């Protein structure tokens, strides 16, 4: 998309900003006057005076050592790097009278001119959303995402998607998920200057409600282009969505196999090192520390105590279904009765215990009625009151 | 002068279609225990095993960092642990380099693969192609080999009967190899009537789906001679990588194999590969590769492999006395198993398939579609 018209690059701004763009190394020890006659609409006359490194930009022509004449449009293009100065000179688009040697030095006087930054507003980001809908991304989707953009220039908006039909409303209206961010952070995320995941994990933005909906929301809209922000036409590059999947059958062997089969009978087996006597659960072929086979099984638990626990707020989605498990969930390393040290077993805790569970609490397994010899044969562990 | 390196012990499991009784950890554990029965060596930074290398592949194992679950059984817990993918023969080069440089005195290398685990090994090798073009068009190592087989047969004049003879010979040799119990003897007719996979590759032309593990212990010469009476010296190696894109390659040129062989021969001081070896073990994943790789290695002249097949190579080295890869071993262990077989022959421990008085061996490994990456290892009893 080309929208250079919104950009306010003027001859007055180019010359007016020069004193703030002085390159100290470029003007060091230099004394000269360079005149500029910029013709046509928006033109003007200026003199850059350098006196032993001291730079002043004056209006009008004042005893120049060299004078450059160019149209306003050509001079703007040269300044923005769209037109090569040497080409412009040799093709007669600009004229130079006087000491050419001085001109050579003048190229180093200033740092690069940057056009005034386009103004990006929260209003424009949300206001342009309906025109940026990505039909593929909203296909078959129905949800409401609320945005509470705080601080200077903020506002409240709801993106309402009804079976692919998108409306952006002011205010928060019965959202499935609400994102809270200050205006500056939200602008930076929109412009790609701030990574959304980083912003979330570092607490710069807050999300309340159905995280799964937000995952879809990332595909609702095409990229936001700030007013006058993109001068160059950018080629849209393709991204190929693929799923890598090779169905597997994992043989469990006599150690892991014994453990998994035990779950069917509500039994938990660890195996014991014949040398150091430590237990491993789930069991493995050897004791890594003693480098010996560990063939003896010991029944442990099934109750135990929480040794360490953690709450997960951001579950990674299943790559095949795209579905994420419910969050937050709490999981723990459980020291089963009969085990010691860090001979712990990992499992989930009952979501109902999320607020109260703590290190040292006693827990018991809640068994799945339909057991097949897998980790889900235990639904979760729960606190023993 | 770098230290010399010797193989002190080798071990392998049987290579079978579907090992349902063990996890791959236990397959490697069997190999480790067998190796440690052969030589009395512990794990130690000096004078012991100072580095453990696991040969495995993330896609075949369906887990990333496929060596991570192996450290326990490799004795690499709290030790120096490394991984080599591609062809297992590369791990020998890696381990030998660590010893030559003086970083380690001894290195343990064990590799595993279960080709039976995924629904199809072709689904696994399809993933080695780029996701944009060559993967979606359906290339895998078998279909890529089909292209090369077409091109090579047309250039060399190798016939369907000769391809069948290669398989018959492989199975005959394999019948004396206790590690390839599931490669029954076949007739030329059996081979020629077996189902077509990718013209001209038939089912019996392809190495069987295999599960198994293989390992060896390498040591510096001064340590090796204390550990064993039959050290097998690592006398040189070479490898060479061809283009990733099949379309960029001259599929019949053997450029990469010739390059790998040239480097190995130079390092091992070999001038005439036709007479230099008692044992030649090549990774023939498909029957057409047997003559093609022999020509590339200079074991026979270009265009003469057909004669070699018909004459059963009566006057040359013993080629794939083990049965070769056609008798069964997983893809990523090809060159590693070939080197293990070569070492067993030079140790005089090859049982019924022993070649009398064998003193020199060439082991060849290859991975990538249609012979993209070749490795040549030269072994000698001195």
Characterize this entry briefly.
Chain A is built from 11 helices and 20 strands. Chain A is of the alpha+beta class and 385 residues long. A 5-stranded mixed beta sheet of chain A has the order 3-2-1-4-5. A 5-stranded mixed beta sheet of chain A has the order 8-7-6-9-10.
Features:
heterodimer, A: 385 residues, alpha+beta, Nonspecific Lipid-transfer Protein, Chain A, 3 domains, 5-stranded mixed β-sheet, disordered N terminus, B: 382 residues, alpha/beta, Peroxisomal Thiolase, Chain A, domain 1, 10-stranded mixed β-sheet, two-stranded antiparallel ribbon, 14 helices, 12 strands, 19% strand
Secondary-structure map:
The complex is a heterodimer of chains A (385) and B (382).
Chain A: H1 11-16, H2 24-27, E1 32-39, E2 44-51, E3 54-59, E4 66-71, H3 72-79, H4 85-90, E5 94-98, H5 100-106, H6 122-127, H7 135-138, E6 143-150, E7 155-162, E8 165-170, E9 177-182, H8 183-190, H9 196-201, E10 206-209, H10 211-217, H11 253-264, E11 268-272, E12 279-280, E13 286-287, E14 292-293, E15 296-300, E16 304-312, E17 329-336, E18 345-348, E19 362-367, E20 378-383
Parallel strand pairs in A: 1-4, 6-9
Antiparallel strand pairs in A: 1-2, 2-3, 4-5, 6-7, 7-8, 9-10, 11-12, 11-15, 13-14, 16-17, 16-19, 17-18, 19-20
Chain B: E1 5-12, H1 24-38, E2 49-55, H2 58-61, H3 71-74, E3 81-84, H4 89-100, E4 106-114, H5 121-126, H6 141-156, H7 160-174, H8 188-192, E5 196-198, E6 201-202, E7 211-220, H9 221-227, E8 232-241, H10 255-268, H11 273-276, E9 279-281, H12 289-297, H13 305-310, E10 318-319, H14 334-347, E11 360-367, E12 373-380
Parallel strand pairs in B: 2-3, 2-4, 9-10, 9-11
Antiparallel strand pairs in B: 1-7, 1-8, 4-7, 5-6, 8-12, 11-12
């Amino acid at each position: 998309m080309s929208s250079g018209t919104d950009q306010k690059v003027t001859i007055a701004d180019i010359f007016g900003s020069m004193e703030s763009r002085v390159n100290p190394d470029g003007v060091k020890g230099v004394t000269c006057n360079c005149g500029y006659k910029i013709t046509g609409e928006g033109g003007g006359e200026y003199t850059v005076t350098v006196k032993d490194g001291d730079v002043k930009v004056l209006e009008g022509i004042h005893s120049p050592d060299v004078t450059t004449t160019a149209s306003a449009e050509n001079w703007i293009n040269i300044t923005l790097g769209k037109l090569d100065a040497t080409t412009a000179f040799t093709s007669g688009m600009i004229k130079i009278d006087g000491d050419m040697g001085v001109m050579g030095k003048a190229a180093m006087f200033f740092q690069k001119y940057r056009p005034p930054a386009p103004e990006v507003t929260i209003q424009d980001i949300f206001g342009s959303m309906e025109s940026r809908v990505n039909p593929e991304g909203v296909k078959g989707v129905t949800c409401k995402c609320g945005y509470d953009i705080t601080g200077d220039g903020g506002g409240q908006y709801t993106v309402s998607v009804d079976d692919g039909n998108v409306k952006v409303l002011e205010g928060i209206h019965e959202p499935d998920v609400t994102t809270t961010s200050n205006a500056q952070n939200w602008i930076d995320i929109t412009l790609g200057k701030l990574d959304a995941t980083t912003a979330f994990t570092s607490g710069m933005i807050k999300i309340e409600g159905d995280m799964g909906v937000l995952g879809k929301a990332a595909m609702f809209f095409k990229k936001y282009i700030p007013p006058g922000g993109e001068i160059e036409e950018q080629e849209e590059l393709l991204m190929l969505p693929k799923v890598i999947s090779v169905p597997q059958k994992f043989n469990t062997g006599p150690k892991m196999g014994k453990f998994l089969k035990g779950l069917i009978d509500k039994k938990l087996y660890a195996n014991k090192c014949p040398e150091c006597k430590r237990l491993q659960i789930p069991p493995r072929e050897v004791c890594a520390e003693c480098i010996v086979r560990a063939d003896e099984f010991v029944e442990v638990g099934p109750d135990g105590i929480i040794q360490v626990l953690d709450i997960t707020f951001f579950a990674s989605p299943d790559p095949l279904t795209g579905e994420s498990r419910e969050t937050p969930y709490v999981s723990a390393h459980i020291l089963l009765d009969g085990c010691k040290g860090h001979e712990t077993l990992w499992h989930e805790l009952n979501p109902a215990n999320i607020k109260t569970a703590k290190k040292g609490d006693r827990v018991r397994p809640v068994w799945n009625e339909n057991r097949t010899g897998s980790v889900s044969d235990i639904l979760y562990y729960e606190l023993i009151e | 002068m770098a230290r010399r390196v010797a193989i002190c012990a080798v071990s392998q499991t049987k290579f079978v279609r579907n090992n349902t009784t063990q996890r791959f950890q236990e397959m490697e554990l069997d190999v480790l225990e067998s190796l440690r029965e052969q030589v009395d060596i512990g794990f130690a930074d000096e004078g012991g095993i100072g580095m453990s290398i696991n040969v495995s592949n993330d896609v075949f194992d369906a887990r990333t960092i496929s060596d991570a679950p192996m450290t326990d059984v490799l004795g690499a817990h709290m030790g120096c642990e490394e991984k080599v993918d591609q062809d297992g023969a590369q791990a020998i080069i890696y381990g030998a380099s660590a010893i030559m440089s003086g970083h380690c005195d001894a290195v343990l290398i064990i590799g595993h693969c279960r080709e039976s685990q995924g629904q199809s090994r072709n689904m696994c090798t399809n993933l080695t192609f780029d996701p944009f073009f060559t993967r979606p068009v359906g290339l895998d190592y078998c279909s890529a080999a089909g292209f090369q087989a077409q091109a090579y047969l047309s250039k060399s004049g190798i016939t369907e009967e000769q391809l069948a003879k290669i398989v018959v010979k492989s199975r005959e040799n394999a019948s004396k190899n206790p590690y390839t119990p599931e490669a029954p003897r076949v007739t030329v007719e059996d081979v020629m009537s077996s189902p077509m996979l990718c013209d001209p590759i038939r089912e019996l032309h392809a190495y069987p789906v295999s599960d198994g593990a293989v390992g060896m212990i390498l040591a510096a010469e001064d340590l090796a001679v204390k550990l064993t009476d039959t050290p097998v010296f690592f006398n040189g190696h070479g490898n060479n990588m061809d283009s990733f894109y099949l379309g960029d390659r001259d599929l019949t040129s053997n450029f990469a194999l010739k390059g790998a062989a040239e480097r190995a021969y130079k390092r091992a001081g070999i001038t005439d590969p036709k007479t230099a070896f008692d044992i030649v073990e090549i990774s023939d994943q498909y029957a057409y590769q047997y003559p093609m790789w022999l020509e590339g290695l200079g074991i026979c002249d270009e265009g003469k492999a057909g004669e070699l097949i018909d004459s059963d190579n009566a006057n040359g080295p013993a080629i794939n006395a083990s049965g070769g890869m056609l008798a069964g071993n997983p893809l990523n262990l090809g060159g590693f198993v070939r080197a293990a077989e070569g070492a067993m022959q030079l140790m005089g421990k090859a049982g019924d398939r022993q070649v009398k008085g064998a003193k020199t061996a060439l082991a060849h490994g290859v991975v990538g579609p249609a012979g993209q990456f070749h490795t040549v290892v030269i072994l000698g009893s001195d």
